[in-house]
Specification:
The complex is a heterodimer. Chain A is an alpha/beta fold. Chain A is built from 9 helices and 10 strands. The chains are: A alpha/beta, B mainly alpha.
Chain lengths: 238, 316
Amino acid sequence: MFLLEVKDLTKRFGGLVAVDSLSFTVSAGETVSIIGPNGAGKTTVFNLITGFHQPTSGEIKFDGSNLVGSKPHKIALAGVGRTFQVVKPLRGLSVFENILVGAFARTGDRGEARRIAQDIIEFTDLAALGDALADGLPIGMRKRLELARSLATGPKLILLDEVMSGLNPTESKDAVDLIRRLRDERGISAVAGVEHVMQVVMSISDRVIVLNHGHKIAEGSPSQVVDNPDVIEAYLGK
Amino acid sequence: MKRARIYLSVLSLFLIAAPFIFEARYSQHVLILVLLYVALGSAWNILGGFAGQLSLGHAAFFGIGAYTAAVLASKTSLSPWWAMIAGPIFVLPIALVVGWICFRLRGPYFTLATIAVGEVTRLVALNWSDLTGGAVGVVIRPSIFSGTSKVPYYYIVLIIAVAAIVLCHGISRRKLGYYLMAIREDEETAESIGIDTTKYKLVALAISASLTAIAGAFYANYFLFVDPTIVLPLALSVEIVLMAIIGGLGTVAGPVLGAVLLKLSSEVFRNEFAQANLLIYGALLVIVILFMPGGLMGGFRRLFKSGTRKSQRVSA
């Protein structure tokens, strides 16, 4: 059985078809990249899966149950975490508190929540910044905080919207390491949305799905996808 | 931590002994007012400060609490003190309906809707003369404490104020407090980490409105007179909000400091400067808002650097 099963997913905004009968699956413990140029529909797919938008038609199943029509917080509690493309830290709270809020999804007990947050803050290498206000963090750290906060809720699958955008090479490398450790050490599946065909991201992906204008134009291993003529055309033109 | 406990003990002793230190009836009256506003500011802070939903309609909940006492006194043989329990019971369903409607709106639109709730409540009280006595109001006959001493009232309002502070403190350290702060900072983020934002906003409103109604019920029993311009004016809603903002939004101590500063100063100014009191009161507000954007608590925090925040974190 698949962890996530998306079938014929379509989203229209007025006349614009943002996502056009998209189908894909993610298995437990798998890391999948969704790549595609700006406007390809990656963020819309994430918003549909996490309940922030309602699909025009199609099915989304997670862990065997239907997600369509559920409120975002229900979907989060079901085990689907997400980060936002434009990072949304809880600005007035410290880094530790940001993660702590996430941990409260798993427990109402303060001590237990703090223990979970402590584990996550160490796993994501943010412990040194625990007392800093989230508002003042540089972008690389904010992106990581997004991931940490979502991770604290105990997801089985995490959707990473544009994990790499705006990061410098060192930060990108750290982010890639973190995604790899997510799967290898925690067994959490991830779907990473990435704008550019980045070998680094693709190298850690078990599978790559290529979107263009809301269509899936290719799917396969990273090496299969980069050699696909349709993909090259989507990125570079004819 | 240890020092905090000593300060707290000294403060408790002072509060318990206060009516005997300040024996003048007027001083006791001011103390009662300050504590009443401490309770109101703290109650408002749960919704406005922690959850970030700026309500300018809290006079409605205060007024309903006060009118509960008035109606009990004029229409039944029960003691109006029962309003301390009946007030929140009446307010709760009203608050939930108000929340259900108003929480569809965000930011300034929510605030505008709450102003409307306050004004509608005032107009209902004004026009439903059979129940509320309309513009004439209701005179309440004192029931339990029939003497002229203000001391019993002082201790009752002290209990209400302390209970409100303890409640705020408890909330701020628990899941509920963190969830409300998450909602204040970003509702989408809050949803994305499993927070039912609608439910938690309603919980905050319910607690806040109930506490405010209790304060209103006390007020009616203390002043023994209720009419729409006294217990339901927009100015009252504004005053509650000002206190929380001046003191420091979303902090437990903020509304307490705000209430003490604003109520004491307004009384002092009224005595010292007669007609000019509102002018000076206004100037004080402007100064605090200009120079302490985070309220008094924000100002203190900056004075002591991040010391307080850190010690809070370690102890939390």
